[in-house]
Amino acid sequence: MRILHILDHGLPLQSGYTFRTRAILTAQAAAGHVVAAVTGPRQGASAGGIEPVDGLTFHRTSGDGTPRGLVGEITGIARFATRIAAAVTHFLPDILHAHSPALDGLAAWHVARRHGLPLLYEIRAFWEDAAVGNGTGTEGSLKYRATRTLERFVVDRADAVAVICEGLRGDLIERGVAADKIMVSPNGVDLTLFGTPAPRDAALAATLGLIDDEVIGFIGSFYPYEGLDDLIAAMPALVAARPRATLLLVGGGPAEAALRAQAAASPVAERIRFVGRVPHAEVERYYSLVDVLAYPRKAMRLTELVTPLKPLEAMAQGRLVAASDVGGHRELIRDGDTGTLFAADDPAAIATALAGLLADRSGWETRRVRGRAFVEQERNWSSNICRYDTVYQRLVEAANRKSRWSAYPART
Question: What pLDDT score was predicted for residue 408?
């Protein structure tokens, strides 16, 4: 089957969004599908054209980056739709697979309707809630409500909807979307990239001064909703209980400056290390140094509904995982079995949970094995992508039946 993915942005940019996309496209190609993607205006300055990256083909939308204001967004959607249409003519897909935000789905819907192609629309998060979590939006504001309305408009017009977790599916059903229209394609790990846990990188440990430390780590993006301020606030109590405890923060993002200032003012500032962003190919080296990966997400709509990717990567690497007890984490982590859950928004609870893990290592290996097995069996992209196939086939067959009388025959 020929599948054209419609994306907000893609490789070579690095984000959880692009890593999930790469995993899907790579796994589908390995399974025998023919895949390509179109990226939108937010990819950055581009003259358009076709660009190969990591063995994948990306059709680029021309422009100078993120559209500004309402007129800019409307113009951006029009340019995106024009580029998608050109990619359809060039690639001749059987189906369009658009990924959130809803602006992508809207542009794809116009092209799908014009060409008689089926449209699967995939929601990775409700972007109005993501804006609240990022500190760039306010719940209940005009923009929040408009984004929510646009999402429903696209959902109603797509032939099928995919979501990344049960939280999003349940929320859509509560809004009145038919349950049988929604499939769950959960976050997963490409085990060809995170296949074998790396041995401890002694040279890197020496460079970072982590020789005999008990290392608590976070590897990811520094957004306010990640709760890294609570993790830093927990460090004095954790160090009091475990004097060799050190926090290693790998990544960057909007909250970085505030977090660095908070850490510098901490009475245990010498026990908090910032590494900055590292190339994705280097990430395994940092995982190898960490005893416990901590994910202290704050409790809000975004984190209650959406499952993150990073805890799965940590489990694939054979690392222990400790996380706040928000809904997105509860879908991934079984407390006391594959990981540890602690109360959200509570530095004291974080310190207690982490100190307890560091004090008793007797169950570490069992928990690591169970976490790794969970990823292999339930969150492995090589098998996850099979969930799409049944939906693709159903939609393409329906489009082909419709083409018998439609003025716009479906591609085959």
Answer: 44
- Taking Cα atoms as reference points, which of 361, 347, 337 lies closest to residue 268? 347
Phi and psi torsions of 335, nearest 5°:
-60, 125
Class of domain 202-378: alpha beta
Task: Assign domain 2-188+380-402 to its CATH architecture.
Answer: 3-Layer(aba) Sandwich (3.40)
State the SS3 of the chain: CEEEEEECCCCCCCCHHHHHHHHHHHHHHHCCCEEEEEECHHHCEECCCEEEECCEEEEECCEECCCCHHHHHHHHHHHHHHHHHHHHHHHCCCEEEEECCHHHHHHHHHHHHHHCCCEEEEECCCHHHHHHHHCCCCCCCHHHHHHHHHHHHHHHHCCEEEECCHHHHHHHHHCCCCHHHEEECCCCECCCCCCCCCCCCHHHHHHHCCCCCEEEEEEEECCHHHCHHHHHHHHHHHHHHCCCEEEEEEEECCCHHHHHHHHHCCCCHHHEEEEECCCHHHHHHHHCCCCEEEECCCCCHHHHHCCCCHHHHHHHCCCEEEEECCHHHHCCCCECCCEEEECCCCHHHHHHHHHHHHHCCCCHHHHHHHHHHHHHHHCEHHHHCHHHHHHHHHHHHHHHHHCCCCCCCCCC
* Residue ranges of domains in the chain: 2-188+380-402, 202-378
Report, as an integer, the average pLDDT of 291-296: 98
Give the model confidence (pLDDT) of 244-264 as tens digits.
Answer: 999 999 999 999 999 999 999
- Asked if domains 2-188+380-402 and 202-378 share a fold, the reply is yes
- The larger pLDDT score, comparing residue 44 to residue 346, is at 346
Across the range 13-26, mean pLDDT stands at 91
